[in-house]
Amino acid sequence: MMSSSHFFTDREYKTVFFETFGCQMNKLDAELSLGLLQEDGYRIVDKVEDAYVVLFNTCSVRQHAEDKVYSHLGALKTLKKKHPEVIIGVLGCMAQKDGKAIFKRMPHVDLVCGTRMFSRLPELILTIRNHGSHVLAVDEDQVVSVKRVAAYRPNAYQAFVTVMRGCDNFCSYCIVPYVRGREISRTISDIKEEVQSLVSNGCKEITLLGQNINSYGKGLPGNVNLGDLLSALEDVDALDRVRFVTSHPADMSRDIIRTISRLKKVCEHIHMPAQSGSDRVLGLMRRGYTSGYYRELISFAREHIPHLAVASDFIVGFPGETEEDFQETVQMMEDIRFQNCFIFKYSPRTGTKAAELIDDVADEVKRERNLKLLELQKRISLEENKKVLDKKVQVLVEGGSKSDPGKLSGRTRQNHIVIFRGTPDLAGKLVNITIQEVTDLTLFGKLAKG
Ligand code: SF4
Fold first, then answer.
1. Sequence-separated (6 or more) residues with CB below 8 Å from residue 322
2. What is the CATH number of the domain that holds 85?
3. Concatenated DSSP letters for 242-287?
4. What integer best gives the mean pLDDT of the chain?
5. H/E run at residue 372
6. With 90 as the cut, is the pLDDT of residue 12 above it?
7. What's the CATH number where 422 sits?
8. Separation of CA 40 from chain center
9. With left for phi above 0 and alpha for psi between -120 and 50, is residue 337 left, alpha or beta?
10. What pLDDT sits at residue 196?
11. How far is the CA of 212 from the centre of ligand 1 (A)?
């Protein structure tokens, strides 16, 4: 550990601690940032006290996520007093949202870097080292183009690839359009090149990432859409599987669904947040569709894509949500029988339209409704998973099971987690597993004969 009079070599300066919060897009931005810093000679350390650059990649989707980062920053005040040369940076959505207000609240923070500026991290850190503190980089219009360091990723066989950034939907409760900016899509050739480099580096499964991936292609020449992108990846040799997240029902076209039904590599799993089963609440949320439209879309998708698994998101306790509204959400979950759902309690986000509404659903009621939907989904997931008992499923082996040492884990094309006994050399391979036991979250089985 450094002493206050210590003179720093380049090598010591180039140590970075990086903590990321929030969604898959943030995790991928962290991976891209660390790849860049590594290329610039940085060593990644896993303890704050071993680093000269301490970075937090932040999330603003709920107040709680921001409070957590501010408490981390508060805790670094002493370290900064003792070692003023240490560089502390805030990246991501909270940096984009709060900007220079972070310097006011936490004067010991040196860098505030927004959601579209992380590709300049090495240069921004150098600026602080050479010219001193309080560098603000929150330009919204910057096109994010980061040369991916294919070798640097947390999982050898799977990778996320950003295909577009930002969102133009402005759902009334959501902060994303204010912190991630307007929708901008990468070209199909750019994405395909990145996918090919990942596949040549051993990747078997690619998940395409976009806050509102169904509007991929908007603004690109030639009127391309998500269907065209998925079709373009169908001929990438050695790529086994393609997934995509996150879909917005109003932007999911029947054409895209028909295209998916013709493609072999696109997995039969769609994550399509419904958010509520009540038309009145969907209107207040400015989601742009009705529960009837949503139900028809899911039926159409299930009709055209055999064995399709659908996951969803729901928000409980939105301002004005009555017991009747809530019961319509319960009914939608009962009728559609999702493979799994993420359930959230409404939390107002300053700056969003919904924040202007009175948050009149009591916390106790929010908790109750949240629990009811979690229990309902747990029952439905278990019943649906029982349907694959004694069946053979294709699994991409990810490696050793985190929950069950000595066993392997992987995923089906429907995104089920599968645990089974096997040898480590199966990692990265597609195997058939006969399912013998299930819970609401996991399938357990054995390697199928032949
Ligand atoms: S589509 Fe998703 S990311 Fe976009 S505003 Fe709505 S909830 Fe937010």
1. none
2. 3.40.50.12160
3. EEEE---GGG--HHHHHHHHH-SSB-SEEE---B-S-HHHHHHTT-
4. 93
5. helix 363-386
6. no
7. 2.40.50.140
8. 26
9. left
10. 95
11. 7
**Best probe residue, ligand 1, of 212, 215, 272, 286 (max atoms within 8 Å of C-beta):** 212
In a domain, 219, yes or no: no
Decide which of 107, 137, 167 is a domain's last residue. Answer: 137
Whether 193 is covered by a domain: the verdict is no
Quick one: average pLDDT of 72-87?
94
The CA distance from 275 to 316, in Å, is 8
CA atoms of 58 and 66, how far apart (whole Å)? 7
> In this structure, what token pair is assigned to residue 449?
């004969």
Question: Pairing mode, if any, of strands 205-209 and 184-185?
Answer: unpaired
In a domain, 372, yes or no: no
Residue 114 near residue 102 (C-beta atoms within 8 A): no
**Helix H segments across 40-175?**
63-75, 77-82, 93-98, 101-105, 121-131
Tokens representing 279? 């038309």
Question: Given this model, what pLDDT does residue 394 score?
Answer: 98
Q: How many domains does the chain have?
A: 2
Structural domain boundaries, residue 414: 392-447
Which residue's structure tokens are 């959505």?
A: 93
pLDDT given for residue 150 in this prediction: 61
Whether the predicted model's global pTM rises above the 0.90 cut = yes
Is 170 close to ligand 1, i.e. is its CB under 6 Å away? yes
**Mean pLDDT in residue range 373-396:** 98
Any domain includes 16: yes
What is the per-residue pLDDT for 233?
98
Tell me whether the omega of the peptide bond preceding residue 246 falls within 30 degrees of 0, making it cis. Answer: yes
Token readout for 240 is 């086994």
Q: Is the CB of 211 under 6 A from ligand 1?
A: yes
pLDDT of amino acid 11: 54
275-295 mean pLDDT: 98
Domain final position from 116, 137, 158:
137
Instruction: Compute the average pLDDT of residues 153-177.
Output: 92
Ligand 1 near 315 CB (within 6 A)? no
